[in-house]
Fold Branched-chain amino acid transport system ATP-binding protein.
Amino acid sequence: MNTLLRVSDLRVRYGHSVALSGVDAQVGDGELVAVAGANGAGKSTLVNAVAGWSRGRATVSGSIELGGREVVSLPAHRRCKLGVVLVPEGKSVFEQLTVDENFRMVRPPRHATGKRYEIDDVYEVFPQLRERAHARCATLSGGERQMVAIGRALRAAPRLLILDEPSVGLAPRLVVEVLQHIRALVEGGLSVLLVEQNVKAALEVADRMYLLEQGRVVGSGSAAEMRDDDRIVSAYLGRL
Ligand code: ATP
């Protein structure tokens, strides 16, 4: 499998406080890689750094390569054109606009290298949104709103789709539904980096997982390996 994203020795500081201290991680073409870890472990810091969205007084060093090209010093909009598209945690839809209007606002870059999704393609991915095409997003369920957020990201023609806690606040049934949609996108060839608090559900859909603790990768492996990892079992899955 070709490596699409290669993060090497990534370090992020906010002022004097170290949030990531030397993270190595990869995502292959057509792979779904999850990132797990406790609150404050550095998951959002990691995905924001990959997308070029580091906030506040963040200082980023190390290497972030996309398809062999160094992107660590590129601004977010340039990385987006190269296909690195982040759906941040929380609100990322325009609630006062309809589903359709939300999708129409995003156009793929002219020289997009990722797969282009026309609006109709997005409705193929999320058929239930077609029925709500003219509903204002404020009237949608949390799960539907999350699907709109992902649909907007697809419109930007991602090569690497990054999702920061897409299931936050969703009922368990909807968590599974949203994650299954994400898996289906990966089956279609997309590469995904997924931050997910619900580790059990993430392991159902991910190919591999990284476990972060205090800004370091303390474990990584295939979903099957991570399901047996003692730290994952004791912190997230519970002993049988
Ligand atoms: P959560 O699950 O709570 O979202 P996380 O694993 O995503 O946690 P981060 O949000 O990446 O963790 O935070 C990592 C560390 O960096 C934490 O100690 C946090 O307080 C700190 N941090 C995050 N963003 C900033 C910022 N803009 N300015 C200063 N410190 C920050």
Observations:
- The chain has a mean pLDDT of 93.
- The two ends are 35 Å apart (CA to CA).
- Residues 14, 17, 19, 37, 39-45, 55-56 surround adenosine-5'-triphosphate (CB under 6 Å).
